[in-house]
Specification:
With about 50 residues, the chain is mostly helical. The protein has two helices and no strands.
């Protein structure tokens, strides 16, 4: 639990300044992350419906 909290804090401590300093690159990174999550969800739903 402690490591999860530290990881969450580190994520925001890195993402915040990056988004403020490079908003265009941050937008591309967020779009890529959500696109990857959408593909993963689609693949998982196809796998579950196959069985």
């Amino acid at each position: 639990m402690f490591l999860r909290r530290c990881g969450f804090a580190a994520f925001w401590l890195v993402l915040g300044p990056f988004a403020l300093n490079h908003p265009e690159n941050a937008a591309h990174a967020v779009r890529a992350i959500f696109g990857g999550l959408a593909l993963l969800a689609d693949a998982l739903s196809r796998f579950v419906t196959a069985f």
